[in-house]
Amino acid sequence: MSVIAFSMVAAPEEVRPARELVVAALAVAGVPLDADELADVAVMVSEAVTNGIRYGCDPGRDDQMLKVSVDLVGAGTVRIEVRDPGRGVPRPRPAGKEDEGGRGLLIIRMLASDYGVRIAEDGARTTWFELGMKVRASLAGASRRE
């Protein structure tokens, strides 16, 4: 079931609105996420969108777009996808203590129940992640109370 899908300009100032839109859409859809889970979603959306802007777009262009989608898949799993025009598979890279970047995929890997990258025929890539275990437990508890 689709919760929301939207396109956004690939610009750093659009990261916060994208994050807020995803969290709001999950709340409106009634997805049973607690405050910690919503905070995890917000962080992962921020990281995936920032990576799409930073590594998936040409910094000399201001007309590139990202596509963000949020879906409920399977038994209570939320899947969020960020598609950028970049080429190749992103790889986690080592980050030093003082580095301001280089941790996005590591953060997603730590917070998500699953994640990956899919390359389309046109070469564009989609970074996706899922939040499943806690959501499934919440949905199971809700169905037992009915």
From TrEMBL:
Domain of life: Bacteria
Pfam families to which the protein is assigned, alphabetical: HATPase_c_2
Keyword Ribonucleoprotein: no
Gene Ontology MF annotations: protein serine/threonine kinase activity
Record keyword Protein biosynthesis present: no
Stretches assigned to the Histidine kinase/HSP90-like ATPase domain: 9-123
Entry keywords, A to Z: Kinase, Serine/threonine-protein kinase, Transferase
UniProt-listed InterPro entries: Anti-sigma-factor_SerPK, HATPase_C_sf, HATPase_dom
Full protein name: Anti-sigma regulatory factor (Ser/Thr protein kinase)
Provenance organism: Kitasatospora kifunensis (Streptomyces kifunensis)
